[in-house]
Specification:
By secondary structure, the chain is mostly helical. 54% of the residues lie in helices and 9% in strands. It is built from 15 helices and 5 strands. α9 crosses α10. The longest helix has 29 residues. The structure holds tryptophan and iron/sulfur cluster.
């Protein structure tokens, strides 16, 4: 099977990641691995959402340019291929912003106010003043990100489903108002990423806000130190106390990283106190480090050659703009402000 013939060339996929720092293993096993698969099957547009980062972080935007580039550097290190996918930074394609503005004309406030993430995030991020116009508009900006490329599918997690629903409603309203119901802006479908509950160092979901992450490109020494410090089944006070893997966050990681044989060794050894916790952690440390090795090597290459990353972004930006400009001109004409 050749790549070309198996690729749904004309089915476009768009997805973005908010710029919040470097990738961690949870992001990698969730969204990014999915992108790596999709890039060979669809016409993919992947971007670092720097404007979306500003919606919540407008008070502290320092370093966002560097962070966007490092985020993309992590994608490239993980194997995202600029020959297969268009890779860019959102603000490099100002067409998103003009479409956002034009769509704001037809979007009832109530549609934005009832998007559940609006109130949820305001409650969760109490220390920030999110009673801004930009934050209310977050899902409409996302709508513009998607519709500007006439995406067919949008790979996202469960938490983004309400944003996709808004996207579809806005597209429908636009087509109804300006398209004689022809689909100038086709309605995209969510391509749900399997709920990735990738476990963090404390057993909770791995997340920057829980401070329980391992970076995708974390140093091997640091990986080993972090795993060695992980809490285990509290019943194992002494080496001779038996434990129960199901009560241990280390086991959650074994389930992802270890072979059937190793897992059996863990379960037996833990329940019989035949192995100690440090011993149990050793093959896990080895597996994580082995997974990261080629990624870290590529990351070092890109870090040493930042001009290559910047050239990849510049090319992706140009390709994305070619597509975005066409849609935008159709929208301007449909709305009567261009001929
Ligand atoms: N809101 C998305 C998130 O937090 C990121 C995002 C911005 C996005 N624009 C997008 C995702 C467009 C898909 C398509 O995960
Ligand atoms: Fe956890 Fe392994 Fe220790 Fe059992 S032996 S408590 S699974 S680290």
């Amino acid at each position: 099977m050749t790549v070309a013939s198996s690729k749904h060339e004309n089915q476009r996929i768009v997805s973005g990641m908010r710029v919040t720092g470097r990738m961690h293993l949870g992001n990698y096993h969730g969204a990014l691995k999915n992108w790596l698969q999709l890039q060979h099957k669809y016409d993919c547009y992947f971007f670092a959402a720097d404007w979306h980062a500003l919606t919540t972080n407008y008070e502290n935007p320092k370093g966002i340019v560097a962070q966007s580039r490092l985020l993309i550097q992590d994608w490239l290190a993980a194997g995202l291929d600029p020959k297969a996918a268009k890779i860019f930074i959102q603000s490099g394609v100002p067409e998103h912003a003009e479409l956002h503005l034009l769509l704001s004309m037809i979007t009832p406030l109530s549609w934005l106010e009832r998007v559940p993430t609006y109130k949820d995030q305001q409650d969760k991020l109490k220390e920030k003043d999110l009673s801004t116009y930009g934050f209310l508009g977050y899902p409409l900006l996302q709508t513009a990100d998607i519709l500007i490329y006439k995406a067919k599918f949008v790979p996202v997690g469960e938490d983004q489903v309400s944003h996709l629903e808004l996207t579809r409603e806005v597209a429908r309203r636009f087509n109804h108002l300006y398209g004689d119901n022809t689909a100038i802006l086709p309605e995209p479908a969510a391509l749900l990423t399997k709920e990735s509950k990738f476990p963090g160092l404390d057993g909770q979901k791995m997340s920057k806000s829980y401070n329980n992450t391992i970076a995708l490109t974390e140093d091997p020494e640091s990986v080993a130190a972090k795993i060695k410090r992980m809490p285990t089944d509290p019943a194992r006070v002494r080496r001779s106390d038996p434990g129960e893997p199901e009560k241990c966050p280390v086991w959650s990681l074994h389930k992802i990283y270890s072979s059937a044989e190793v897992k059996e060794w863990v379960v037996k050894g833990c329940r019989s106190a035949g192995i100690g916790c440090l011993e149990c952690k050793a093959p896990l440390i080895a597996s994580i480090i082995a997974e990261q090795k080629p990624i870290i090597e590529r990351s070092k290459y890109f870090a040493a050659n930042p001009q290559i990353v910047q050239a990849i972004i510049a090319e992706g930006t140009e390709q994305a703009r070619d597509c975005a400009k066409q849609t935008l001109q159709q929208v301007r004409i449909a709305m009567g402000i261009a001929e």
